[in-house]
Automatic annotation (TrEMBL):
Binding residues annotated for ATP, in chain numbering: 7-20, 101, 166, 191
InterPro entries xref list: Rossmann-like_a/b/a_fold, tRNA(Met)_cyd_acetate_ligase
High-level lineage: Bacteria, Bacillati, Bacillota, Bacilli, Bacillales
Native source species: Sporosarcina highlanderae
EC number(s) reported in the record: 6.3.4.-
UniProt protein name: tRNA(Met) cytidine acetate ligase
Length: 414
């Protein structure tokens, strides 16, 4: 069977995601779709709207045949590391192609950009560094660096706009695939409707996950978002709200985060991954004086430290992820199976003996520092989502088996 890979967060899964899975399968003439999905904390340093088990169920109900977890170390990293981990896993899973959504919708400009940057990599990397030191965001730094290295070079065709978030991820997916000499064929589908960060909903368009979450949190009523999500997603979110009550966001997680910051103090905070240059002191002072996450962020965000960069730091503080822990996690060490359809199970059975990484369906049967961190992050999320009460479902990594086809029975979130 021929598999195509996609990289997802599904936060939550909406109509645009269903379109992406369908088009990825059609464009590559694939028999099945394999998704590498972030766990309970995401690439922009945010807690997931619902946990990885609920989002796996959404995926299996919406065109995905196998879901593997992207380990915490990669899922919460900036774009190059995020892409590296995801592409490594898709390649290890035997995908013949991978497909990403982009604002461009054409692979050729991505390849043109990669070809040029391959010839000017040292200059390009220095330009990115200079731009970020000047206070530009990462997307704008990429674009400025590309303009700098391309101005004196002959361009071979159109290049991709690296100020767009999905284009940036697509660029890094292709860069990561080239770096490991992957045989996977890259394909891209033009993103429909609202932009990646667009916060408003329009009944005539496919909404962004950001807009869907913002609309929900303004009322905490699922009726506000039902036009933008599949019926299966609605059922799963309704079940979650009934059983868990709370949905993941930083405002509700802030009391737990604040406790961790004040307990640890600047000395211990300085050991946390991504904290540097004395920002631990700023974070500690902000936690002392701010009662809400919004005010905390407003007092720490600056031209030097973007909102997303700070959120990644805070995620690591909450989960206790240190620089020392991260040092041994440069490469994915396993394929953690979260769920599969019957077709996905047949595919895995046919290639299992040839997989270059261990296939993990039961965490108790495998030991690895990165897997330990995944479990730790899951429990940190569960504690915060349950507000420390009986709704805090600790230990699900040990008690839940990979989800099979039974989207709405036998996989209760109880």
């Amino acid at each position: 069977m021929k598999a195509t890979g996609i990289v997802v967060e599904y936060n939550p899964l909406h109509n645009g995601h269903v379109y992406h899975a369908q088009q990825a399968k059609a464009a590559t003439n694939a028999d099945l779709i394999i998704a590498v999905m972030s766990g309970n904390f995401l690439q922009r340093g945010e807690p997931a709207f619902v946990d990885k088990w609920a989002r796996t169920r959404m995926a299996l109900a919406s065109g995905v045949d196998i879901v593997f977890e992207l380990p915490y170390r990669f899922a919460t990293a900036h774009a190059p590391v995020f892409a590296h981990g995801a592409i490594r896993l898709l390649d290890a899973a035997g995908c013949t192609a991978y497909c990403f959504g982009s604002e461009d919708g054409n692979v050729e400009p991505f390849q043109n950009t990669l070809n040029l940057l391959d010839k000017t990599s040292d200059e390009y990397n220095q330009e990115v560094k200079n731009a970020m030191q000047d206070g530009l965001s990462y997307p704008m730094a990429l674009n400025r660096a590309y303009d700098a290295v391309s101005s004196g070079s002959e361009k071979s065709g159109r290049h991709v706009d690296l100020s767009k978030p999905n284009n940036i991820l697509g660029f890094h997916y292709m860069q990561a695939a080239n770096a490991i000499s992957s045989s996977m064929i890259p394909t891209t589908i033009k993103r429909l409707g609202a932009g990646y960060h667009e916060e408003t909903l329009d009944v005539n368009r496919v909404a962004s996950a950001t807009g869907i979450r913002k609309s929900f949190f303004s009322t905490e009523k699922l009726d506000e978002i039902i036009n933008f999500i599949p019926e299966t997603t609605k059922v799963i979110l309704t079940e979650w709200q009934r059983e868990r009550i709370n949905f993941g966001n930083w405002e509700s997680f802030y009391p737990f985060l604040r406790f961790c910051i004040l307990r640890d103090g600047p000395v211990r905070l300085a050991t946390i991954a991504d904290l540097s240059e004395g920002i631990e002191n700023l974070i500690y002072r902000a936690a002392q004086t701010n009662d809400t996450f919004q005010s905390f962020m407003e007092s720490t965000k600056s031209k030097r430290y973007t909102w997303t960069r700070i959120q990644r730091m805070l995620t690591h503080i909450l989960t206790g992820f240190t620089t020392e822990m991260r040092s041994g996690m440069d490469e994915p060490a396993y394929l953690r199976l979260l769920g599969m359809t019957d077709k996905g199970r047949s595919y895995l059975s046919s290639i299992k003996k040839d997989l270059p990484l261990p296939l993990i369906s039961k965490v108790a049967s495998f030991s690895d520092p990165s897997l330990d961190m995944d479990i730790r992050a899951s429990d940190s999320y569960a504690l915060a989502i349950g507000k420390g009460s009986k709704n805090a479902k600790i230990g699900l990594d040990y008690t839940l088996s990979p989800i099979m086809n039974n989207y709405f029975s036998g996989n209760s979130l109880k």
